[in-house]
């Protein structure tokens, strides 16, 4: 009861920005899983939706499938096209990155002992930072993705010491770009470590989710719950953290099975287009001025299934400058 009251007060007292930055997370790997031409999808995100803020991964298993042979061709393309279209990029590094299976680890790394695995990871992160630290499209680094959330395939929480080594490494290689650390906004705890050691804190925001034992359930938190968590943590533990963003706003259905294998009518029932509108309005009430939507690949795929309403809503929102 007290938490609910404080959350409501926090929401009422938090000033709302006059303008919001709207971005999307994009994964070429996920686009392929949906059977999409990832390059065409990406270009349409930039040209048709006219997205100017992106969060992109650097999957270790994809960039270094063979030990010592790193191929940056795809990531080069993504950042170069972002630059060409005057878009800015949050570039994620590390083992845990956006999209299933969460931990994107090369097969050859699985055979290594813990210490050797860490050494190779830090070397890979260093290579990514060195390559892109001066890229004009780069805006922020994101180090790991929800490192303390126990979720994913063969993927547990990340060792805090390793996370801090990665953060220190990125800072030493590139002191000119701020670092984002992310955590579950729905967790009933303060994100102390992720805020304390980052410049910017990225919270998730999900409304309808699925858990194996419970099934589907709605998070009942108010927007002020997210605001209050951020405010308390910053004041008590992380005064050097400059801002909070919604790094991942649910904008696609949460299904226990891959969406490509989920019946279309079930997907629409789980996430009708009206929910995209409602969730975005909900997120804006937190007072955080940057919101990155999760699901742009799915909107594109849905357009090909005869349901363009998700894509068209975001397109209209951006073109009308009505954020």
What labels describe this entry?
eight-stranded parallel barrel, 10 strands, hydrolase activity, hydrolyzing O-glycosyl compounds, Glyco_hydro_5, hydrolase, 43% helix, glycosidase
How would you describe the overall organization of this protein?
- The protein is an alpha/beta fold.
- The chain has one domain (20-318): Alpha-Beta Barrel (TIM Barrel).
- The chain is 43% helix and 17% strand.
- The protein is built from 14 helices and ten strands.
- It has helices at 2-13, 28-33, 38-47, 60-63, 73-84, 107-110, 114-132, 160-173, 192-196, 223-236, 264-270, 273-284, 296-304, 309-319, and strands at 21-25, 53-56, 88-93, 138-143, 178-183, 200-205, 208-211, 215-218, 243-250, 290-294.
- The strands form two sheets. It has an eight-stranded parallel β-barrel with strand order 1-2-3-4-5-6-9-10, surrounded by four helices. Strands 7-8 form a two-stranded antiparallel sheet.
- Helix 1 packs across helix 10 (223-236) and helix 7 runs parallel beside helix 8 (160-173).
- The longest helix is centred in the middle third of the chain and has 19 residues, at 114-132.
- The two termini are 32 Å apart.
- The model has no long low-confidence stretch (mean pLDDT 95).
């Amino acid at each position: 009861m007290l938490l609910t009251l404080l959350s409501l007060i926090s929401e009422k007292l938090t000033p709302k920005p006059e303008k919001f930055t709207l971005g999307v997370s994009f994964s070429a790997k996920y686009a392929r899983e949906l059977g999409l031409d990832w390059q065409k999808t990406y270009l349409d995100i930039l040209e048709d939706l006219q997205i100017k803020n992106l969060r992109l991964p650097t999957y270790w298993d994809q960039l270094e499938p063979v030990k010592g042979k790193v191929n940056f061709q795809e990531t080069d393309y993504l950042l170069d096209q972002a630059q060409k279209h005057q878009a800015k990029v949050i570039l994620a590094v590390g083992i845990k990155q956006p999209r299933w299976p969460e931990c994107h680890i090369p097969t050859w790394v699985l055979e290594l002992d813990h210490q050797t695995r860490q050494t190779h990871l830090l070397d890979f992160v260093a290579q990514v930072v060195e390559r892109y630290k001066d890229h004009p499209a780069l805006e922020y680094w994101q180090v790991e993705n929800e490192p303390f959330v126990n979720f994913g395939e063969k993927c547990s929480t990340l060792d805090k010491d390793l996370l801090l080594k990665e953060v220190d490494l990125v800072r030493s290689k590139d002191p000119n770009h701020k670092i984002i650390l992310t955590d579950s906004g729905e967790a009933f705890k303060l994100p102390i470590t992720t805020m304390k050691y980052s410049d910017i804190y990225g919270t998730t925001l999900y409304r309808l989710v699925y858990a194996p034992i419970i099934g589907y359930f709605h998070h009942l938190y108010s927007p002020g719950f997210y605001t209050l968590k951020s405010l308390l943590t910053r004041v008590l533990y992380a005064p050097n953290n400059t801002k909070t963003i919604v790094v991942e706003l649910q904008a696609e259905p949460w299904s226990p099975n891959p969406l490509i294998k989920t019946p279309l009518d079930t997907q629409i029932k789980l996430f009708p287009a009206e929910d995209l509108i409602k969730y975005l309005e909900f997120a804006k009430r937190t007072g955080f001025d940057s919101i990155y939507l999760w699901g742009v690949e799915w909107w594109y795929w849905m357009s090909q299934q005869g349901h363009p309403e998700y894509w068209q809503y975001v397109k209209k929102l951006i073109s009308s400058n009505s954020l």
